[in-house]
Amino acid sequence: MTDAAASLPARIPTDWKAGEMQKRIRRRNAAERRFRLIGLGAILLSAGFLAFLLISMMSNGLKGFTQTDIRVDIDFAKSALFIDPAALKNSKSVAALAGADIEGAVATAAEAQYGSQGARMLSDTAWIRVQRAIEADPDILTRKASLWLPASSELDQAAKSDAAPEAEAVVKRLEQAKALKTAFNTEFLTGADATDPAAAGIWGAFKGSLLTMLVTLALAFPVGVLSAVYLEEYAPRNRWTDLIEVSINNLAAVPSIIFGLLGLAVFLNTMHLPRSAPLVGGLTLALMTMPVIVIAGRNAIKSVPPSIRDAALGIGASRVQVVFHHVLPLALPGILTGTIIGMARALGETAPLLMIGMRAFISSPPGGFTEPATVLPVQVFLWSDEVSKGFVEKTSAAIIVLLLFLLAMNGLAIFLRNKFERRW
Amino acid sequence: MNHIPNDAAPKMTARDVSVFYGTKKAIDAVSIDVSQEHVTAFIGPSGCGKSTFLRTLNRMNDTIANARVEGQIALDGEDIYSSGMDVVQLRARVGMVFQKPNPFPKSIYENVAYGPRIHGLANAKADLDGIVEKSLKRAGLWEEVKDRLSESGTALSGGQQQRLCIARAIAVDPEVILMDEPCSALDPIATAKIEELIHELRGRYAIVIVTHNMQQAARVSQRTAFFHLGTLVEYGETSEIFTNPRIDRTKDYITGRYG
Predict the structure, then answer these.
(1) End-to-end CA, chain B
(2) Which residues of B touch A424 (CB under 8 A)?
(3) Complex ipTM, two decimals?
(4) Taking CB atoms and an 8 Å limit, are A314 and B88 in contact across chains?
C-alpha cells in the first residue's frame, strides 16, 4: 500500500482559471456559435430557394387561373342562325345545334360590333360558350343578347401584362367601352389541352394523373408490402434472399427513363396494351415505386420490437396472425410514409411516361384507364415547350395544380401516420 | 449424469436434448422431468443454456433461424417435435412469460382477450368478459385495473405489466407455464408480488421458472435444476440442492464461488 502510494507522482491540481484554459473555453464557445450560424444560414438559404420558387410560380401562375372576357352583343333573331327554339326543347337538340353555324354567327356579330378585326379578338373556342348559353336558355334565339366571350390569347396577354402595341391599343379601346372584364377561368379547371392557350385546361391532365396514380397504388402497395412482409418475416436468410435484397435496392436507384423503356418493351410491344393509357403509365410507375415501398416497408417491419412477436407466438398465434394482428398495424405508419414518398415521386415523374406515349396531344379528359391520357408533369413539359406566349402562365398554373396535388397527398400521409401511430 | 426425480406421471419429459446454434452446441444431452404439482426452477450462471432449454419446451426456438434441436421432448407422453404436433396448439398448451414485460400496445382488455379470441375459446362477448376477469383475478391484477380495462397495457407499471403478461398467458388456460426470468426487470416489491402469484398458481399449472436469483429459486420452487456450460449438472428437490448438493460444482455455485 505505502509502496504504491509512494511510487505515484504527487497530484498537481488542474488550474481551470489559467489563461490557457480560458482560451480553450473561448475557442470552444466560438466553435459552437459558428456551427449554429452555419446551420441557420443553410436553413435560410433553402427557405429562400423555396420562397423564390413559390413567389415566381404564384406571380406567373395565378394569372393562368383568370381569363379576359369581351362583351359581344349578338342579335340572334337577325343572325343567320337557323335554329328552331322548339327543336332545342326536345331530344333533337344535339342535332339541331350541330347543324348550326354558331361560329359564323359569333364572328359576324363581333365584326359588326368591333370592326373587321372583331372576329380575331375572340378565342377560337368562344362559340362553345355561345352554344352553352343557347342550350341553357333556347329562348335567347328570339332576341338580342349580350354575352361575355373569352378573348383571344393575344388580347388576354395584353390585358394581363404586356403584348404587341396594336393589341394594347385594342385593349385600351375595349376598356373604355367597358367591354372587357377579368373572370375566373373555370374552363382551365374543367377542360383539357388545346392548341389555343386561352382554351387550354388542366382537368384532362389532372384526371390522367389521378387514374395513373390509382393504378400505381393498387399494384405497388400490395405487392410492395407483401414482399416486405415475406422478406422480413418468412424468408430464410441465405444467398438467394441476399441477392433479392441487393436487386431491390438497385432497382430503387435505377434511372426512371429505363423503367419507361421497360414499359414500352413489355406492356406495349409484347402485351399490346393501349398506347398513352393511364393503365400502362400506372404499371410502369408501379415498377418504379414498388422497390421504394419494399425498402420502407422492410425498415418499418424491422423496427417492430421482436418482443411483440415473441408475446404473440408465446400464446399460440400463428405466423399469419402475428403479422396481421401485431406487426403490420405497428409498422403501418412507416409503410404509409414510404408509400407516399414513392407515390409523390411517381406523380412527378415525366421521363418514363414519355417513353410509353403519354406525351401525345390529348384534347379531351380520359374516360377510363385504357383511354389516351396525359399527366400533370408531362402537361407542364408540353406547355413549357410551346411557342405561344399564353402558355407561359398556363405552365405556371399547371405547376401550381401539381404542387397542390402533392401537398394534398403529403397531408393525407401525415394524417394517416398520426392516426395509426402507436407507442409501445 | 442427471438425476431425475421419480414421478408417477411427469407433465413434460426431456430425454437427451441437445440444442445447436449453427455448429455451436448450446445444450448437451439434457434429460429432465417436469412435474405437474411442483414449481421447477432452472438456475445457473449467465450463458449456461437454461433459457435456451426453456424455449425448447414450447418450441420458441423454432423462430431462431439456425437453431436445431436433437433428442426427445414430450408433453403428456406426446412428442412435441413430431410432425403431427401443431406448434400453434402446443404454445397454447405451454404458455410463456418473458424476461421483459411485453404487453401488446393495445388495451388491457385486448391483451388478455387476444389469446382466447384467436383460439376460439369464447363465443359470446359475455364469455370473453368472464375469461378476462378470471384471468386478471388469478394474476392478482383485477383490483388494480378493473376500472380502466380500456387503457393501454403499456401504460401500466413494470410489475403490473408483467402480471398482465401472466394473465394473458393463463387466459388461454395452458397446462404448463414457462417463465423466463420474469422478475429480472422488476423492483423488489413487484418481484414479491410475482413470487406470491407463482405460489398461488402452483398445482393448477405446471410451472417452470428460469432465474438468476438463487434466493428466488429457493423461495418459489420445489424442484431445482442446476445448469452449467450447457449441461444439466444436478436436478433434485430444492431443499436438497440448496442444503446438501451432491456435486461440487453445484455447491460452489450455490455458495457463491462463481456465477
Answers:
(1) 21
(2) 105, 154
(3) 0.89
(4) no
Cell 412527378 -> residue: A348
Pick from B31, B35, B39, B27: which is nearest to B15 by CA?
B31
Closest Cβ opposite residue A308 in set B58, B63, B104: B104
Round to whole Å and give the CA distance between A290 and A258: 15
Q: Is A345 in a helix, a strand, or coil?
A: helix
Phi then psi for residue A404, to 5 deg, are -65, -40
- For B119-149, the pLDDT digits (tens) are 988 888 999 999 999 999 988 899 999 999 9
Q: Where are the beta strands (DSSP E) in chain B?
A: 12-21, 24-34, 39-43, 67-75, 78-79, 94-97, 176-180, 206-210, 223-228, 231-237
Best of B90, B102, B121 to disrupt the A interface by mutation (most A CBs within 10 Å)? Answer: B102
DSSP code of residue A303: T
pLDDT tens, residue by residue, A144-179: 888 888 888 888 888 887 777 888 888 888 888 888
Q: What is the pTM of this model?
A: 0.81
Handedness of CA B131, B132, B138, B142 (dihedral sign): negative
Contacts of B237 (CB under 8 A, 6+ apart): B5, B222, B223, B224
Distance CA A27, CA A19 (A): 12
Contact assignment for B104 to A311 by CB distance below 8 Å: yes
Q: How many whole angstroms separate alpha carbon A257 and alpha carbon A255?
A: 6
Question: Smallest Cα–Cα separation from A102: which of A51, A147, A152, A155?
Answer: A147
- Which residues on chain B are in Cβ contact (under 8 Å) with A236? 65
Q: Which residue has the cell 425498415?
A: A299
Helix (H) or strand (E) holding A70: strand A66-75
